[in-house]
Amino acid sequence: MSQSIAANPDRLLPADPGTRSIARDLLQRVQDLPIISPHGHVDAAVIEHNTPFPDPAALLVSPDHYVTRLIHASGVPLDRLRGSNTSEPDSRTVWREFCKAWPLFEGTASGYWLRTQFDSVFGLQQEISAETAGASYDAISAKLLEPGFRPRQLFKDFNIEVLATTDDPLDSLASHKAIAEDPTFHGRVLPTFRPDAYLNIAHPAWSANVDRLIAAAGDGATGYAGYINALEIRRRYFVEHGAVSADHGVRTPATLKLDAGDAAKLFDRARAGQASPQDREDFEAHMMYQMARMSVEDGLVMTIHPGSYRNHHEPTFNAYGADTGHDIPFAVNYTEAIRPLLQDFGTAKDFHLVLFTLDETVFSRELAPLAGFYPSVYLGAPWWFLDAPDAMLRFRSAVTETAGFSRSSGFIDDTRAFCSIPARHDASRRIEASFLARLVAEHRVSEDRAHELIVDLVDGSPRRVFKL
Known about the structure:
Helices cover 50% and strands 6% of the residues. The protein has helices at residues 17-30, 44-48, 56-60, 65-73, 79-82, 91-101, 109-120, 133-145, 151-157, 174-180, 196-199, 206-217, 223-240, 260-271, 277-298, 314-320, 339-345, 362-371, 389-403, 421-441, 447-465, and strands at 35-37, 160-164, 188-190, 245-248, 301-304, 308-309, 328-329, 353-355, 377-379.
């Protein structure tokens, strides 16, 4: 395969010439629209300080569990890719391992994004391979040293208009404030309230986190009342600093409405270390209900990312920590699990609830019907293992016949890899063009209407759903 594949203007478009021609026109309609990224994991401090990017391996390989997991599956120990608790990996050694493993990425979403970056962001002239490892490392390193290859200039070059980060509830948001007040920076970098470690009593630091939360924002109250009060206060702090959403990476989408007395007793048992497994599930489900109540009151869009069995391989977690490639999806139940929340808030004015999944079986069976009835519910874009070309097409096919196009969130890149953002959004735009082109070719949607729809999917939906 030649590296020129990444520059082919018809990549990801339909193979049929007639349908491809329609898709080309649709893609051209949105190709230059600004990037709206309402959920991701780039560190705001990197943009505030315009921090230079590290070496090629530290930028593109070691921190990316999409990449390291597949190389590890081929038999390469993780310490040769990420280092260990006691040592950092040699960058050139990591890069050589990656280049040797490059053929493994054919057909994967990671391979597509990386190939696109190598071509359009780094300008590599040769295909990645074991033989070109040294040359590609040197070429990318030289690019990283260029004065213009810094986050702020790339923010502009990538045509990013809005970039949301993911932030701890007690974060000072100083970087977001500095960016917002900087007259030389043109764009929006928005914080996102992410309270998982304060809601999940199974988290090893939960009790300590609660202590810090109540001390910082309890406003004099203690116990469960102080805890709820502190969460409400910190959410308002995020709103004051530009936040538009609160994100929840829960194990399941379960919700549960408890009265204050029962919730307080459960909270006290957890604080005393006496919570049962059922208590842990009930408390997190109740807190998801509380988060929805708070979103109705303060206006933050509520996004839910469930369905991942975190840290599936305990020895790897013990040696390398979280986010090291062994989070594995499992089946989820949305229809029953989310019902207690929707009973009270599903039709609440201006409440926006964006539901994501790693379980494709719920696209047409549960999520599309929910979004096709409840005014509050929107369909979160394919996420994580599903933000791949074929999975994105399956998503669009599965949900559109029931929920149409208007109930979609717009594309969510959900990435820590800043340089991959344009590749991911470009891929999504090509998939939307491909899907709409098929409907036009089958005389199910007019071409004029398809041009309106693709602009709304790329630009209108994320602005509307995330209140931008």
